[in-house]
């Protein structure tokens, strides 16, 4: 089961990569931080429906008001759920770790 999704921006569009474990998701998130053009957003946990921000965004999130935190967290979760539903509903190809590693090789 691909419980986690690493969410990132590429060419002004949201994308995600499925991961089976949180450790794997954090490794992909860290790898994305070093890739040109990638803007990692965070990790979505489909089982708990929680979102974990990448470090810079976590700092910004922590400084926001409670109302703002609720709004941006809801938006991030909605984006993650929409990406997952899109992949489940259509015959499109789901992103994988191999795809991310091959993009810049």
Brief account:
By secondary structure, the chain is an alpha+beta fold. It has four helices and four strands; from the N terminus they run ββαββααα.
Describe the 3D structure.
With 105 residues, this protein is α+β, with helices and mostly antiparallel strands. The protein has one domain (4-103). It is 50% helix and 24% strand. It has a four-stranded antiparallel β-sheet with strand order 2-1-3-4, sandwiched between helices. Strand 3 (39-45) and strand 4 form a beta hairpin. It is globular and about 35 Å long. The N and C termini lie far apart (27 Å). Mean pLDDT is 86; it is low at 97-105.
Draw up the topology in text.
Layout (H helix, E strand, L loop, with lengths): L3 E7 L2 E7 L2 H12 L5 E7 L4 E4 L1 H9 L2 H24 L7 H7 L2
Antiparallel strand pairs: 1-2, 1-3, 3-4
Q: Give the fraction of residues assigned to helices.
A: 40-55%
Q: How many E-type strands? A: 4
Instruction: Count up the domains.
Output: 1
Q: What is the spatial order of strands in the main beta sheet?
A: 2-1-3-4
| Uncertain runs | 97-105
User: What does the average pLDDT come to?
Assistant: 86
**Number of distinct helices:** 4
The CA-CA distance between the termini, in Å, is 27 Å
Q: How would you describe the shape? A: globular
Rg calculated over all Cα atoms:
13 Å
Structural class: alpha+beta
What composes the largest sheet?
4 strands, antiparallel
Could you tell me the strand content as a percent range? 15-25%
Order of helices and strands: EEHEEHHH
């Amino acid at each position: 089961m691909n419980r986690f999704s690493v969410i990132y921006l590429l060419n002004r569009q949201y994308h995600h990569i499925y991961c089976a474990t949180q450790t794997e998701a954090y490794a992909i998130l860290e790898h994305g931080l070093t890739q040109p053009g990638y803007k990692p957003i965070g990790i979505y946990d489909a089982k708990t429906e929680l979102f974990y921000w990448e470090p810079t965004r976590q700092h910004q999130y922590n400084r926001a008001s409670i109302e703002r935190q609720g709004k941006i967290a809801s938006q991030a979760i909605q984006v993650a759920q929409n990406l997952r539903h899109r992949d489940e509903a259509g015959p499109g190809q789901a992103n994988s770790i191999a795809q991310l590693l091959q993009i810049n090789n």
